[in-house]
Amino acid sequence: MSDDPSATKDAFTASGTGREALFFARRNRKLVGGGVVVLVFLLVALTGPWFTTDDPLAYVGPPGAGPSGEFWFGTTTFGQDVLAQFVHGLRATFFVGTVAALIAGVLGMVVGFTAGYRGGLVDEVLTMITNVVLVLPVLAVLMIIAAYLEVRNIEVQALIIGLFSWPWVARAVRAQTLSLRAREFVDLARLSGAPVRRIVFREIAPNMASYLFMVFILLFGGSVLFAATLDFIGLGPTDGVSLGLMLNHAKQWSAMDLGMWWWFVPPGLGITSVVGALYIMNVGLDEVFNPKLRET
Amino acid sequence: MGRYFGRKLAIYALTFFVAVTINWLIPRFMPGDPVSRMVARAGMQTPEGVAAMREYYSSLFGFDVPVWQQYLNFWGGLLTGDLGVSLWAFPQPVSSIIVAAVPYTLGLLIPAILLSWWAGNKFGAYAARKKVLDNTVLPIWYVLTATPYMWLAILLAWALGKVAGLFPVGRTFSASLRPEWSWVFVTDLVSHWFLPFLSLFLVAFGGWAIGMRNMVIYELESDYAHYLGALGAPGKLVRRYAFRNAMLPQITGLALQLGVIVGGAVVTEIVFDYRGLGYLVLEAIKSSDFFLLQGIFLFIVIGVLVANFIIDVVYVLVDPRTRAGMGGGA
Amino acid sequence: MLHVDDLRVHYRTLRGDVRALDGVSFSVADREIMGLVGESGSGKTTLGKSLIRLDGRMRHVGGTVTLDGTELPIGDDGRMNAFRFNDVSIVPQYAMSAMNPTRRIGTMIRELVTSRGIRFDTVRSELDRRLDLVGLDREVLDRYPIELSGGMKQRMVMVISTLLNPKLLVADEVTSALDVSTQRAVALALAGFRDRDLVHAMIVITHDVSLVYQIADTILVMYAGKLAEKAPTDVIVERPLHPYTRALIAALPEVGVQYAGKRLTGIPGGPPSLRPPPPGCRFRDRCPVAFDRCAEQPPFVEVEPGHSVACWRAS
Q: Which residue ranges traverse the bilayer (chain A) (predicted)?
């Protein structure tokens, strides 16, 4: 649409795009609503442990008690405070999600950029590697690695999840880089003799910033779900708590049969709310950055 | 077209090679001596037992020959179907335990994958053109796809199984029955199957519906849709084209999601004590039966690769561009 | 015979309406090929779309479009459908991707025609004749769009768009995606449709004056949502009156030679914002001959038969 009149606006408001995005961001119900949910949970995860016990595994209350004024989320069969486990577990969830998403994001970006920008044999080899890791069933690989690790903690868990979650990012970033590389401004930069590093970080990366943010959200959600799955099959951290481990314990100690819903509802609800809210935020972001989807 | 399949097969062969190598490497690369770790975990009390186990494991791992020969032996064993002996169900071979469990897992997975994909596509395309429906139903789908498989399974098992008592929870069929082609057995089997199936179906459904909805909206904004509109073609024709074209990325998406859905089946089976691969995974982890776990890993990899290839074939049948010999790329 | 009278079409945006077409009046006679020329943002594509299908953000604010005595309901998407393809048709600028990639071309045409309530058999032989006319094998109907070259796709789309002998054909930047040698062939094929009376009148939208010079009878120059000048092609090229037209013509190295630049190199600056537009002549800020009177919008008036211009200096 070379003749789109909205194209002319760029000529007279240079900062228009950024301000416009912010305007739409504030107006977008999906983005704001999702953001509020995520922030509330993040706040609970950050401050919650101060208000509950330091050791969420300590036996502090009556065994198997339902929610009460003293123990808001009830207690486990062993008298552990479910709320304390929940807030500590939430913290682990945010940690694993963030670290794994950062690792996978950086790996995927580097591989994708390099493949797309360098082209040729480098591209061939990197694309092959990407495709191989892409078809490998990630969870099965994580399962094998985690099973052989004698001591597991959330740091290692985040690391191995990150190391195997990057291929689709690399693929997407490669495609984006290929299309951006073909555009004029990059050619201009190259003609003026700018080094590759500068072209990538000054010219290409800013154009993809919004896109990468959305990628981060998807990676975060995926990593949290992977971690929960590992925890649930008994390959979670050997020390500490996580939301997935809570589900594992609840299942192992027959919370379902005993009707102790307060034990297994909160952890799953926590994961679903955080990941779901992030996904909905993602839709909102897409609408903000992609004018075609805006409801005007 | 030959090039297309050639490329795909090369990737799958390489993936299989990588998976087998991972399987061989990990026990050897992990810190510490895998044999003493396994012996320690097996929890043998008597020194004779420990010695016997140590010898048994050492010969199984084949540590008495050079590394390259260990690796080749590993492949040799693999190609003759020898995945070792299970410790959990000693002395049954790992392969026969897995082969016995696979039908149950496939019985859950195949209907859940195909039906969720089909229904998700239908509903997603429908939502793309009904604004009201779109705004109410889309958040629900997003929440569904954000739900951990095991949590939905636990909720369903608890609500519909334990509280409402509509379905039995636990095992593949009642312990009192024996597998046979009788009405009683089949209904029992189906009633045990339904909840795990439903739980897998629902989570996967959300993802497909979202994908289809987004793709259809994208296709309706594409040039061919605008051209047809400018020539006065009715919305029905344009939507039919958009739906058909939106199916193609959904087929690719199916291949990409396979691993995740298999993971979902594993945890769902664990929740329901359903006696498929997931149940074996749990038992293998609980009893540190690494041979069984590694065997399951290889089976999952092979299964995913075969499914990927089937999807490739289907894709070629559905997308004329690959058949025209132009879309030779990835 | 096409009459456009005081047509106003706005783009809705959050910071107010963009007056993409701000009172546009002109006529296109039967058998006339009118070239519509202007920079990006001049409103030429908006004008083309207005005649057949407004896109989601466009709003018909005022004015009428009359085709052979019938007023087109351009603001009413549903009622307009009856006229599309039959009476008004378009060769879009995205011809390279205008055909459904996963349908055989023949199947797509059959489904399109059938959906408009016309039996495919009745147009089948005409379709073959048209393919011969533009030099395409009949067997392309059995192929998928991806199997055709750019020029072939362009000609295929021309055949589809003109299949029902529309009274008016809008050709929007039809050659911008093609290489130079194909451009000429496509332009001549367009003229061929008119010469065989398969299309009554034609509007060829382009930023490339040299293209329309080859085939157009008249040229209409647009600037910032308004008409600047309309005259027979040779008059526009040899004796342009509007300073903007002069700049356009001066930028041509030699008439008939390919001119690829999209921006006016001779005149610094760009078109003004149309949200809302500044008062007075819109070219004033870039005009080398602007004077006091240009603070007032000049009317688009006929200065000699068939030659109209909107400039105080010219009238």
A: 31-51, 92-113, 125-148, 154-173, 211-235, 261-285
Those of residues 25-64 in C touching chain A at CB distance below 8 A are 40-46, 57
d(CA A201, nearest CA chain B) in Å: 27
C-beta atoms of C14 and A11 within 8 A: no
Interatomic CA distance for residues B162 and B185, integer angstroms = 21
Which chain A positions have a beta carbon within 8 Å of B12's beta carbon? 135
**Scanning every residue of chain B, which has its alpha carbon at the shortest distance from the alpha carbon of C112?**
B233
Tens digits of per-residue pLDDT, C29-43? 999 999 999 887 788
Q: Which of B224, B231, B319 has its CB closest to that of C97? A: B224
| Cα separation, B236 vs A54, whole angstroms | 62
The full set of domain ranges for chain B reads: 2-79, 94-324
pLDDT tens readout for residues B35-66: 666 666 666 666 777 777 777 777 666 666 77
Domain covering B94-324 assigned CATH 1.20.1300.10 in the classification: no
pTM higher than the cut 0.80 = yes
Instruction: In whole angstroms, give the CA distance from residue C50 to residue C53.
Output: 6
C271 CB within 8 Å of a chain A CB? yes
- Whether residue B196 contacts residue B268, with contact meaning beta carbons closer than 8 Å, is answered with yes
- What is the distance between the alpha carbons of residues B307 and B109, in angstroms, rounded to a whole number? 12
* Helical (H) or strand (E) element with A222: helix A205-230
Cβ atoms of A148 and A142 closer than 8 Å: no
Angle at C230 between CA C229 and CA C232, to 5 degrees: 135
Tokens of B125: 């395309």
**A5 → closest Cβ in C14, C41, C262:** C41
* Alpha carbons A82 and A93: distance in angstroms, whole number: 16
Task: For each of the domains in chain A, give its residue range(s) and CATH number, in order of start.
Answer: 20-53+86-295 (1.10.3720.10)
Instruction: Tell me which residue in C90, C101, C116 faces B321 most closely, judged by beta carbons.
Output: C101
Q: Pick the residue from chain B with its C-alpha nearest to A137.
A: B259
Q: Which amino acid is at C69?
A: G
CA distance C250 to C307: 19
Amino acid at position A210, single letter: S
Per-residue pLDDT for B327 more than 70? no
At C11-23, the pLDDT tens digits run: 887 677 888 888 8
C-alpha–C-alpha distance, residues B258 and A135, integer Å: 9
Q: Which residues pair with C231 in a beta bridge?
A: C219
CATH topology of domain C2-253+264-309: Rossmann fold (3.40.50)
